[in-house]
Amino acid sequence: MDKNKKRDIVDNVEKLKIALERVKEAQRIFATYTQEQVDKIFLAAASAANKKRISLAKMAVEETGMGVVEDKVIKNHYASEYIYNAYKDVKTCGVIEEDKAYGIKRIVEPVGVVAAVIPTTNPTSTAIFKTLIALKTRNGIVISPHPRAKKCTIEASRIVLEAAVAAGAPEGIIDWIDIPSLEMTNHLMKSSDIILATGGPGMVKSAYSSGKPAIGVGAGNTPAIIDDSADVILAVNSIIHSKTFDNGMICASEQSVIVLDKVYKEVKDEFKKRGCYFLNKSELDKVRKTIIINGALNAKIVGQTAFRIAELSGFKVPENTKILIGEVESVELSEEFAHEKLSPVLAMYKAKDFSEALSKAEHLIADGGYGHTASAYLNPLTAKDKYDEFAARMKTCRILLNTPSSHGGIGDLYNFKLAPSLTLGCGSWGGNSVSENVGVKHLLNIKTVAERRENMLWFRAPEKVYIKKGCLPVALDEIKTVLGKKKVFIVTDQFLYANGYTKPVTDKLDEIGVKHTTFYGVAPDPTLASAKEGAKLMSSFEPDCIIAIGGGSAMDAAKIMWVLYEHPEADFMDMAMRFVDIRKRVYTFPKMGEKAYFIAIPTSAGTGSEVTPFAVITDETTGVKYPLADYELMPHMAIVDADLMMNAPKGLTAASGIDVVTHAVEAYASVMATDYTDSLALGSLKNVFEYLPRAYDNGPKDPVAREKMANAATMAGMAFANAFLGVCHSMAHKLGAFHDIPHGVANALLINEVIRFNSEEAPPKMGTFSQYDHPHALSRYAEIARYLGLKGKNDDELVKNLVKYIEELKEKVEIKKTIRDYGVDEKVFLDSLEEMVEQAFDDQCTGANPRYPLMSEIRQMYLNAYYGTNQKV
Amino acid sequence: MKLDKSKIIAVRTNKTVYKDGNLAIKVFDEGFSKANILNEALNHARVEETNLHIPKLIEVGMIDGKWAIVTEFIEGKTMAEMMEQEPDKYDEYLERFVNLQIEMHAQECPLLNKLKDKMHRKISETELDATTRYELHTRLDALPVHKKVCHGDFNPTNIIMNNEGIPYILDWSHATQGNASADVARTYLLFCLAGDTVNGDKYLNLFCKKTDTAKQYVQKWLPIVAASQSVKGKPEEKEFLLRWADVVDYE
Predict the structure, then answer these.
(1) Which stretches within A245-277 are classed as H helix?
(2) pLDDT of residue A860
(3) Among the four residues A34, A320, A717, A804, which has the most C-beta atoms within 10 Å?
(4) Nearest chain B CA: its distance from A850 CA (Å)
């Protein structure tokens, strides 16, 4: 305390600078304190302030000449006890929150030095409040008292300081301006780390202009509505209790009461009965002229008694008069009673209905209380609509029901979840940065420490995948025996239908006595029109099971019909919306399977659609392709029976077989690849390299090769159903769409370009995915090469050999070398190039690619694939 | 320069104005602050560079050991005289008065002193208690800063209509650049001090209507101009001015 005694009084900016340095130094030490030390100081400071509540209240009234000692005692008591109680167990030091699983924690640190501006209306309680929350948060604080209340404000601060220091706080952690001036206040605000400004709009404006973060609060002009559903006795007495509290100086105090016509007389009588005085016309004018001078509040009436204000206005009222009530009509600022009065003077309005009362309240709030407080008295049970409308319409940050607003606004007295505070935020409406009751959290910097975590991945597949050459009838048996389905809708294309591919299915269904019908109108690149046609038939047939039999087109078309059948309202534009993460997509895909069970039976070894959640449909009227992706589209059952593939033509065998290679390679290199998809991809690739040439050459004569290829296609399908694909497919989609090249061939033409592209170890941009930690596609491709038994002295060589190996496979199945070889005219190709590039870049498949492609790079890959050049991308 | 042939046309506290041919000579009493005299002349010269009609500044010098500012003499009547002589045309003149003030506020004169600085200085010079001064400083600090030409003593006696009916604005000793509402508040205060509240209100309403300004916006300046006025104000005005100045910002 000795040091403190030596403290020079702060009466100019130079001395303030020295004081600020002192507080900063003390705060640097305070910032190292533990929670335990801080809590001890907080307790000691709160107790000391609490003990001095009466002497401080007396000092405040004596010095300012405003307010009521007994009420100021309550405020001091409140500021020490309630604030202590609210924050005693709150963690304000170190780690306050930690979640190890998510790898996130929050650490709090003090802000530094708080500049605290203290008003004349609550000169001791606000000082206690602000110094206590500063201590609890390990901040230093410098108080700028109001000149009218400097002695008592400083005394309150001194009491808190001395108790805090005695309990171990650094010397000089709290300081103040002894002889306040605007210059010093402004300097203080500019030099602090944060400002807690309580005061009028002028002070709050200065705070916000200082360039430092400010928690400023402003004026209130609280209206109180008394509805005809209100408990009038409770309402009137609450308002009197609140309005007379400290002679009306709490900023949340009621300034006007708006009474519904029906209860007006009752309310008025109750006010009279309880000692309020209704002004007659001439008294009303006298009070008007006294309380407001040129639109501003007369300093002489603030915090005075009703008796004194009447006296100042030039007439007499009984000495124990509680409130002077003026019955007025206008809510415009030209009406003096519409202003904030900071005294026991109340405006009373009559409203014909609740809506008019709300309009008046809105206007009064706009006059001078934006963002502060509004209050209503009504029965929330019988007048719930009014309650809701009141809450909706008031632009205030505190909306109080059946509560005296002075006591209600500061929290924890009439509602125990509203934080206790003597600094009430008014939100953006009041030009504030805070809209709630100010507390310790506003004086803390919260550091969020976030560790890298990897995304959860998944493996999803149809609930049943039946595999074996000749398994079809056995699997279909379940339709009756296990699933108990009654009506099956078969979707296929004309060729397969005409060539009897559906016959084994229909025969089986006939055998087990299940009704069925067949739609065979699916064309390659299925259109929305044909899907709609099929869905229409579905709707009239009402199947409980759908069987898609065919290649990718038939299965995709069937999936779309399934969607249209179950959710005719679904919008394709929405369903096709691109996403970054399928789990975070904006659109929620409709729930599927409520009407029909979906069985997919592939007749070619390629697409994998029987086990994927994807489907592509073309709107034939606009040419727009809708690629849909959602696990809702996953078939329930896939039947992989090579019997249906034995007679596939050579071209189809080659194109779809190469498609499998690209599925597996892209799924393996994908940023979302997992051990599960990797195994499937590698297994699939091994099958393809060994058996595709045999299946191609021998066709129906090589059932083993056919079956191996069938499995390879479905396995690759499972891999990319979960790991997704990459930029090869992005480009192939557009190449197919723009130049009518079969999907598998398009992929085949691009896959080696993409492997070379992705193998770059220092790409301009890598893919964004938490577990993709560095560009490592090269080593991934090398793993494929090794698995396939290729040789090479390093990864580079292995990948070169993989590319060569794929080229050889393509040659074996007679796939041409370049896009140009497929008869795409050079000019036509170049003319479409820019558009293809942009669309490929934006394709859904691009997101999983390990290298994030630039559009110029996509362009170069297209050009390389067109000309067969090998220019480095 | 000599004042032999000149005739006195006005006598004010600390200064006398003479007419000499087509010159007006304002002679300051000995002891009048030299800095203030030169400031007035400088203000005048600066405002002359705007589009406003004001008498040309001819010379600043000493006459018989006294400082004097010599300007062009404008032949005509003051607006105050016209208002008094033709009461039925009062409203018309008042409107011209307001229009002229608005025209003046449309001017910029970047080198003039800043109104806010001046007001802060005046508030510090008042005899008001520390609390009231603090309130006023705080209030002033929060008011918007503009850079319009403000006369500082804009009233009908300071406007002369020449024989062609062109109004000339005189006496730029209080000129500053700042918020027009402060200038208007000051004019309104002058009306009220003269006991003419009715025309004061009329004036204020007219200004607010023409410029689409909220009355409260002008009123915010009233405690400040009242405090400023109290510095040199007459003793009999003091109580009135202090009442206007002793208001609080809402808390």
Answers:
(1) 261-273
(2) 97
(3) A717
(4) 57
Domains of chain A: 18-217 (3.40.605.10), 222-413 (3.40.309.10), 459-645 (3.40.50.1970), 663-873 (1.20.1090.10)
Chain B residue closest in CA terms to A333: B216
Number of cross-chain residue pairs from A and B with Cβ atoms under 8 Å apart: 96
In terms of CA atoms, which chain B residue is nearest residue A424?
B251
- Give the residue among A759, A733, A768 at the shortest CA–CA distance from A669: A759
On whether the CB atoms of residues A651 and A816 are closer than 8 A, the answer is: no
A residues 322-351 near B, CB within 8 Å?
A: 333-334, 340, 342
Q: Which residues contact A349 (CB under 8 A, 6 or more apart)?
A: A256, A257, A258, A259, A327, A328, A329, A331, A357, A360
Return the closest-CA partner of residue A246 out of A414, A117, A74, A423.
Answer: A74
Confidence grade of residue A148 (pLDDT, cut at 50, 70, 90): very high
Least CB–CB distance from B249: residue in A202, A298, A333: A202
User: Contact at 8 Å (CB) between A356 and A393?
Assistant: no
Q: Which tens digit of pLDDT belongs to each residue from A748-767?
A: 999 999 999 999 999 999 99
Nearest to A201 among B142, B219, B243 (CB): B142
Examine the pLDDT at A5 and tell me if it is beyond 60: no
pLDDT, mean of residues A584-588: 88
Q: At A411, which amino acid appears?
A: G
Buried b (16+ CB within 10 A) or exposed e, A96-114: beeeeeeeebbbbbbbbbb
Radius of gyration of chain B (CA): 18
Q: Residue B95: is it exposed, middle or buried by C-beta count within 10 angstroms (0-12/13-18/19+)? A: middle
Tell me the pLDDT tens digit for each residue of A213-249: 988 777 889 999 999 999 999 999 999 999 999 999 9
Confidence of residue A345 (pLDDT cuts 50, 70, 90): very high
CA–CA gap between residue A78 and residue B66 (Å, rounded) = 68
Q: Which of B184, B221, B240, B251 to mutate to test the interface with A (most CBs of A within 10 A)?
A: B251
CB–CB of A576/A585 below 8 Å?
no
Closest residue by Cα to residue A258 from A147, A382, A390: A390
pLDDT at residue A576, as a whole number: 84
At the fourth CATH level, which superfamily is domain B7-72?
Answer: Phosphorylase Kinase; domain 1 (3.30.200.20)
Query: Which amino acid is present at A495?
Result: F
Contact criterion met (CB below 8 Å) for A288 and A303: no
Looking at chain B, which residues constitute the CATH 3.90.1200.10 domain(s)?
Answer: 76-245
pLDDT over 50 at A4, yes or no: no
Domain with CATH 3.30.200.20 in chain B: 7-72
CB-CB under 8 Å, B222 with A296: yes
Q: Is A299 on the interface with B (CB under 8 A)?
A: yes
pLDDT range class, residue B4, cuts 50, 70, 90: low
Tokens of B73: 């003499």
Q: Which pLDDT value is given to residue B2?
A: 66
- Residue range A306-320, pLDDT digits in tens: 999 999 999 999 999
Catalytic positions of A are 251
Nearest residue to A601 (alpha-carbon basis) of A562, A552, A564: A552
Contact A201 B249 (CB under 8 A): yes
pLDDT higher than 70, residue A3: no
Confidence of residue B5 (pLDDT cuts 50, 70, 90): low
Q: Which CATH architecture has domain B76-245?
A: Alpha-Beta Complex (3.90)
